[in-house]
User: Fold this.
Amino acid sequence: MFDASLLPDTLQHALRSQLDEIHLSPKNANAWSAVAASLAEYAYQHVFALSETVCALEAAIQSYHMLVDLQPSNANAWNELGCLYLYRNQLPQAEDAFRQALSVDSRLACAHGNLGLLFSRQNRISEAIAASEQALSLDSSSMAALNLAQLYGLRGDAGQAVKIAQHALRHSPGQTLVYGPLLMSMIYAGSPTKERQQILKRYRQQMERAQARPAPHLNSPEPERKLRIAYLSGDFCRHASSYFTESLRLHQDHAQFEVYCYYNGDTHDALTQRYMNHFADHWRHTYGASADAVVAQMRADCIDIAIDLAGHTKNNLLEALARKPAPVQLTWLGYPDSTGLSCIDWRITDYIADPATPQRQSLYTERLRYLPGPFCSYTPLVDAPEKYHDPAYQPGQAPCLTQGYITFGSASNIVRLTDVTLQLWSQVVLATPGAILLLESTGLEEPEIAERLYQRFACAGLPAERLRLIPRKHSPQYQIYHRIDIALDPWPCNAGTTTLDALWMGVPVVSLAGDAFFSRIGASVLTHLGHPEWVAHDAEAFVDIAHRLASDPQRLNAQRAALRTEMEHSPLMDTMGFTRHFESALRQSWQAWCDSPASSAARKNAQEKHEALSLCQMLLEKQSYADALSAYQMVCARWQESGEAWYGIGLCLLLGEQRLEQAHHALEQAVLRLQQEEKHSVLADCLSALGNLSLLLGNPQAAAHQFQQSLELKESPDVRAWLATMLSA
Assistant:
């Protein structure tokens, strides 16, 4: 039953008239409709993880159930109910609701589109395509085109994905969400650089035109101080990015960096919990929050460096970063190209993936921040580290020794399998007598998708009998490599995680290097591994390298046995070394801001704060407690985070007016802020003052603890004497 008392007070007040109507007339459908819509709007606009948001979602669901009970032929109500269930990831209930909507109105485009979204989450690709295409046929402006762009890619048709994303952009030019699927599809399809840069320019203009000039950042411009860094991602869960962020989780120096995680995903699993418990000093669940709300939170958290881990991929926070909530903003890892935003200051990369040339820099709106080693480090079995020494996850003998033929293979997603890739791989297989090509991917369990891939390879000259297609859901990660002799890297968009998986399992990888970062990932990985000879620079060399590896099975087997050890001793798995390099890049980027004109407002602010506190200190030393209290309160009103101002207020209240309880509150606030500011000497003095105040308030246990804390920070004969007197009493 619907219980309005569980709602936040603000919602109860806003809905008072409708709730009163429902109380008087429980079958008033109009009132239920108004309440349900208001609750849903509130829930969608607030952070998903907040308890009041969960209450609003549940109340909205209950309200729509009441509405459809009263009006079972209300197709829009059924559709909205399905959206709420989809938002909560309750997929069976969502599907039932959408199907109810379509049973009432089979031409309701939004319900077809929502079914497409639901099927996408369940990897029911063909059904998702059919539902999304139906939505688009009924409404050419439907945002189902966005979903179709991703679905066509999963089917292996990146070119069609580009076309449908361009359709979405034409019909929804104000929707910045359209750009992500379009840009990713263009990368997979190998669209010309000039075309991608034109789209990025259009995106940047739209984003920057909509944003007001950001307020100056007043973060203290001290180059060596502890920094507040924020990682922004929709993928703090079981996701490919976790294999590369794990090094930071394990080794980030929390004495130098206070870590905030802004999680914009709707999945919560064991890895999410691990990041919450063991990586983040502060966790912010932003899924469902507006860009303005995220910016306000980052400003309140005084973030020094924001690190985007998503780029134009799903659930990114680029709209928030476009408002420049942090003085230094970087992008890394999640997206293999420029964000196109001038507000992102740096892109973290390496010298192989992005050769240091003026031409290379011209491809990015961000400046390139180079690491001395690889741009990432790899942690295998990130979600099941206990299996590291399991025999099933050890490199085995090359399968060609028992099968009598070479198996080339790939576990890349079908979206990367462009016509160029199919032609190249077909040439490799045909150049090696008896060889076959094994492909493992999501979607191959669907006959339509598998048959389409067979036909595409046939057009490239490779007959079906030399092709093996393995659905991913029936193939445990890593173990597929027991069946592969040599892995082939797709082009132009190289693989990432699957390349490193293959190498860790002892399988050599052949990669074709191009001009863009996304076509040089394989070159970076193989060069840092110590096998640049597996990197080709044209199609002929690619076929030749693969053929030479295949021509000597015994040597191939020996290489397989040695490869894991090579991996483990290479920079690719030096997680500690990578983390130190990464932290150095953060510190260099911060130093650059401190030295730049952009920090002038912060320097002026810091100087004004210093002068104001000096005046307060002078009044306090003159024992002008009333004047000092007023001065400290003025400082605190402007600089609420100032621990020294709160400390001064506490001393004035204690020494001047003997308002002990208020003084105690002020000193406690000072301790919290001084700890955050890491002003250890002042913090020690504040703790000793708090200890004496605790004695006056009759709490010797608290006093002893505070004196002990003070001594741990700074030696003081007086404090040590006070503590000794207390302990001997």
